[in-house]
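Escalated from tier 1: zinc ion holo job.
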Amino acid sequence: MTASNRINHALYDARWTYDGANRVRPTASKMVLAGEYTAEMADRLYCPECFTPISRSPKDKDRFSNGRTCCFMHRSRYREVPCSLRTPIADGKKYLTEEDAKEAIASDQLAIVDSFMQDRPAKPDATGAPYEQSAVEDKDGPIAEVPIGRHRGEKFALPSKIATVAGLCRRFDINLYKYFVLPGSDVARKLADVLIDVATVTDECEVPHLYYGIILNSWNAGQNPKPSNVRMTRLRKHPSVADFTIKVQASEQEDKGINDESTGRVVLFWAKITRNGIGLAATHLAWGEFALLPDKYQKLLTEK
Ligand SMILES: [Zn+2]
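Tier 2 regenerated the structure:
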């Protein structure tokens, strides 16, 4: 469920040039998919709808390091030319006024996530009642300046949350279609458009993203297993990757319900992707940065 680019194919014409005015289709153009791009096509590719010159991104590699496949993109130079294919997903949802954005937050259609919770919150009371993860709600974060206004560069001062991935999983069917501004991002995008399947990831990535993966198996890495050992949780990975592992202390994973019996379950996590031996890993996940997706929502990610 990675973000899909709207321009599925480009028109390639080695001899045609866009004249800046006419909506005329390149005469001898042929259809090219992003994966069929070759260097000689640079500057000779046009949008199939508005016919402005477009670029392939990235220019030479076949994949972004975060697992997104390459795609075609409009050029900002032709921003004024109307086109329905102009990357609405990448631009995200815009709000007309600060009040509109606040209203969207109040009515649960938008959330500004300042960060994911680092430490497990203290029990709400000292009565000794069993700790329930479901009782933990997101905490209020600082007021954030977010550029999601319809006018370019306009920033709104909006209340943010210190969220948990468990919170995203709780009403996942609703959250999938809710807009989020995630940490380090300044666009509001649907959760469904930002979640990355770990099985599409082929390389390290220094920027944290929200991922999901299907658990292949999970085990305590200690010779004499103790809760303080690392638990290795292997996820379904891309064919070109040796293995993909979530490496977090066993007690912390087991608190989230991840144990030897978790094969087939889906885990969501917010992380950087690092090298781990010959494979890839997500390590040092904080308390609020990972959670098991409840069974009942699993088909929303695994059956497409
Ligand atoms: Zn276009």
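Helices lie at 88-91, 98-106, 165-170, 172-175, 191-194, 250-255, 299-302.
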